[in-house]
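FAQ: What does the model actually see?

It sees only this:
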Amino acid sequence: MAAATGTRVALRHRLAERGIDRQLLLLGPALLFVVVLFIYPFFYGIGLSFQPAEGGAFAAYRSFFTDAYERDTIATTLWLALPVALLNVGASVPIAYRMRGRFRGKRLLTTVLVVPITLGTVLTAQGLLNFLGPTGWFNRALMTSGVIEEPLRLTHNYWGVFFSLVITGFPFAFLLVLSYLSGIDPTLEKAAATLGAGWAQRFRRITLPLLAPGLATTFCLTFVLAFSVFPSAVLVGDPAGETRVISIAAWHAGYEQYDYSKASAIAVVMGLVELVVIAVVLGWRSLLYTGSTGGKG
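And it is asked to produce this:
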C-alpha cells in the first residue's frame, strides 16, 4: 500500500518536474471527441478533394471554377449571406442597447425575440409560406385593402430565403450583442454625460468602440450561419435558379452525380470563402479599434 502511494507521488513529481499537469489528462475525452468528429473528417474531405476519378489532382477544383453555373453559386451565396448578416447585426444594436437597462416586461420581450431559435428551419419555412405566399395573410390583406391588385411574389425566390435567414439568425445576433453591451460599464457614459456629451457623442465615442470587437464577432458568426444555408434555399427559395447556393452545388455533386471528390472540393471552396470574409472583418476591426473590449460576451 505504502509502495503504491509512493509510486503515485513519484509519478506526480516527475510530471511536475517536466511541467506537465496531470489534470490536463481530463481533456483527453474532449480532444478525442474533437479529433474523431471534426478534425479527421475535415482533413479527410480535403484529401478527397484532390482524388478525382480522372483528370489529375486539381480536376475537381477545375471542374467547379470552369463551369459558370457552379462558380456563380459563390456570388449567389454571398449576395444572400452578407446582407442578412449586416441586417441582423444592425437591427440587434439599437434593440439590445435599449434592453440592457431594467424595465417592466423585459423578460417577456426577450423571450419573444429569442423564440425563433426554437422554431427550426422547416417550421419557419412553413410559416413564411402561409404568411407571405401568394394566398397568404400578407398578400390577402394588401389585396383586400386595395393596396395591390396582384399578390406579391415573396416566396420561392431570393426574398423567401432572405426572410427565413433573418428570422432564424436574428436571435443569435441579438443575444450576442446584448451580452457584449451588458458588459460595458454604464458609469463611463454617465461620466461623459456629466461633461456635456450628448447621446450620439456617448454612443459614437464610448459605446461603439468598446462594442466593435463584439460586433465583428457577431457579424462573423451570423455570416457563417447564413453562408451555410441549405434547407431554406430549397423550401422557400428557387434551388435551381436565383437561390442555387454553394451548399446545393455540393449536395448536387455528392448525392446526384456521386462525385464525392467534387463535392469535397466545393466544401473546401466554401470554407475558404468564409475564412476570407472573416479575415477581412477582423482585419477591419483591428484597424478601427485596437484596445480591449468592454463586453463580456
